[in-house]
Amino acid sequence: MKKITNGIDAINLWVGRIGAWSVLALTLVIVFEVVSRRLLNSPTIWGYEVITMIYGFHFMIVAGYALLHKSLVSVDILYERFSPKMKAILDIATYLMLFFPFVITVLFVSYDQAIFSWSIQEKSSTLFGAPLYLTKTVIPIAFLLLALQGGSEVLKRIMILMKEGENT
After folding, report:
1. CB within 8 A of 109, min separation 6: which ones?
2. Is 20 left (phi over 0), alpha (psi -120 to 50) or beta?
3. What per-residue confidence (pLDDT) applies to 168?
4. Residue 19 in contact with residue 65, Cβ under 8 Å?
5. Cβ(138)–Cβ(61) under 8 Å?
6. What does the alpha-carbon distance between residue 23 and residue 5 come to, in Å, rounded to a whole number?
7. What are the pLDDT tens digits along the chain (168 aa)?
8. Contacts 24+ apart (CB under 8 A), 109-112
9. Is the pTM above the cut of 0.90?
């Protein structure tokens, strides 16, 4: 189980680091658009859409990385007082009842949407006509990575319970 969790963690760590670099591209496009608009009085047709697409990519693709590093929102008022065994049980239950149903549903729905978008070569309705199928492809990839990381987290909790069982 440890090899599986390490492998999934390594994938999300790698993808998260790559996703973090998209902020550099985002910053460059924003600066270019601001300079074009404000200093040269010549706004671009494509700037807003490219900024939105890069930000969407960044926001979605680092979800698994955020879960790996426990950067997602959680309410820890009572949780911090529990024993490691109780925390592991509670985590497994919430992953199974709340996390996985949502993530898997979004994964399948977004996959279907991405396939359809590719089949019609969907583009935005603006003059620029950005390819939306690329953006729609990021969503199922991000949710697949998030589901894998959730699986890794559940396996880690199971290992905690197995370790606790050995100590008793």
Report:
1. none
2. alpha
3. 47
4. yes
5. yes
6. 28
7. 899 999 999 999 999 999 999 999 999 999 999 999 999 999 898 999 999 999 999 999 999 999 999 887 777 788 888 899 999 999 999 999 999 999 999 999 999 999 999 999 999 988 888 999 999 999 999 999 999 999 999 999 999 999 866 654
8. 110/136, 110/139, 110/140, 110/143, 111/140
9. no
Q: Quote the tokens at residue 165.
A: 């069982």
Exposure of 30 in the CB half-sphere (CA atoms within 13 A): 11
Cα(78)–Cα(72) distance, rounded to whole angstroms?
Answer: 17
Cα–Cα distance between 16 and 66 in angstroms, integer? 8
Separation between Cα atoms, residue 65 and residue 3, nearest integer Å: 18
Residue 123: φ, ψ to 5°: -130, 160
Two structure tokens written together for 160: 């905690």
Tokens 């729905």 correspond to what residue?
109
Q: Map out the domains of the chain as residue ranges.
A: 2-167
Phi, psi of 131 (to 5 degrees): -75, 105
Token output for 154: 């559940």
Look at the block and give the residue holding tokens 């529990």: 82
Q: Token pair of 57, please?
A: 């990519």
> For residue 89, what pLDDT is reported?
94
